[in-house]
Design goal:
Blueprint: H1 11-30, H2 35-47, E1 51-54, H3 61-70, E2 76-80, H4 88-91, E3 92-97, E4 102-107, E5 114-118, H5 125-137, E6 139-142, E7 145-148, E8 154-159, H6 172-175, E9 180-183, H7 189-203, H8 216-227, H9 233-247, H10 254-257, E10 260-262, H11 266-282, H12 290-301, E11 306-307, H13 309-313, H14 318-328
Parallel strand pairs: 1-8, 1-9, 2-5, 5-8
Antiparallel strand pairs: 3-4, 6-7, 10-11
Helix pairs in contact: 2-11, 8-11, 9-11, 11-12, 12-14
Length: 332
């Protein structure tokens, strides 16, 4: 693997990367022990995609997206999903004005830039379908009229793997709309001590100075810079072969043939391309490496591969199967 090199001498790119580096440092100072989550949040922002975060309660999932929005020149809205939620609670509804006998549309919480869909699997199917249109099309339909959502629109949905009672599992079609499915684990002992100090300092109102807010235009410019990053043709082929191997695992490994029921969709190829570029850009490189692709592969493929009954019966998890796929597909 070739050694990392700096980006080309482009002043605008350097300014953008410096801004996002300070932005990342600030978020990491507020989200202790979850460096990977912070990096993946920024990757999703740069790749213009939505993320599903899964982890036990108290692991800073809600705090992470709130801090992300604080460093942006954008508005934030948290939606607590419950079984009695209605689609209009997300999209908005027409409100009658008795003074002139007219109807006025009252926008719902989806008309914000950064959306936290907390415990998304507690909402019924109709609510999930309303969110699906917003995520997939960047618009909502209410009162027989379609309305565009803000150009900067990011949904971070969370779900709690511990509680299953009163939940509605997300259908595969909706899972596929998420750019990445991120698993969050407990912090280590040292990080736990730093969390105690951070909370104590916050209670004493000793807050960390925030950097200058990242403007929405800077986000759009950074996205264009990410898209212009060099991706070698053999790495594009590597992405395609990884996804094809999930659909036809018997071609690369006889052991995998009976382990995978359904493989990843073409959205997986697009997501691998966008997220690996974003990771390389955050690392201040002007090219993508196989390591970039392999690092984001689990988060991109985790919710897009359906394991067979045999794999589950033998105790395999989807991450183990992805490890086998990565090991089986030749690296360029």
């Amino acid at each position: 693997m070739s050694e990392a090199s700096p980006m080309p001498d482009d002043s605008n790119t350097r300014i953008l990367q410096k801004t996002f580096s300070e932005y990342r440092d600030y978020i990491q100072s507020q989200i202790i022990g979850q460096e990977q989550l912070v990096e993946k949040l920024l990757i999703a922002l740069l790749a213009d995609g939505h993320i599903l975060v899964e982890g036990a309660p108290g692991l800073a999932k809600t705090r992470a997206v709130k801090v992300l929005s604080e460093g942006l020149d954008a508005d934030f809205q948290r939606i607590q999903f419950t079984p009695d939620l209605l689609p209009a609670d997300l999209t908005g509804t027409d409100v009658f004005r008795p003074q002139d006998g007219s109807f006025h549309f009252q926008p719902g919480p989806l008309f914000h830039n950064i959306i936290l869909a907390d415990e998304i699997n507690r909402a019924p199917a109709k609510v999930q379908s309303a969110l699906l249109e917003a995520m997939g099309e960047g618009q909502i339909t209410a009162g027989g009229e379609t309305r565009k959502l803000p150009e900067l629109f990011l949904v971070m949905a969370t779900q709690n793997p511990i509680e299953q009672e009163g939940t509605y599992p997300l259908p595969e079609a909706q899972l596929d709309r998420f750019l990445m499915h991120i698993n969050v684990d407990y912090p280590d002992a040292e990080a736990e001590k730093r969390i105690l100090r951070l909370v104590r300092d916050e209670a004493a109102e000793q807050t960390v100075k925030r950097p200058q807010a990242v403007s929405q235009q800077m986000v759009f410019d950074a996205r264009q810079s990410v898209l212009s990053l060099h991706m070698a043709e053999n790495l594009e082929e590597y992405i395609v072969q990884l996804v094809l191997a999930s659909r036809h695992p018997g071609v690369v490994s006889a052991d995998l043939e009976k382990m995978i029921e359904w493989g990843a969709s073409p959205r997986a190829s697009i997501a691998l391309d966008r997220t690996s570029r974003a990771r390389a850009w955050l690392a201040k490189r002007d090219y993508v490496t196989p390591e970039d692709i392999q690092t984001v592969a689990h988060d991109v493929l985790r919710h897009r591969i359906l394991l067979s009954y045999q794999a589950e019966a033998e105790g395999y998890g989807v991450d183990q199967i992805i490890d086998k796929l990565i090991a089986a597909v030749p690296v360029p």
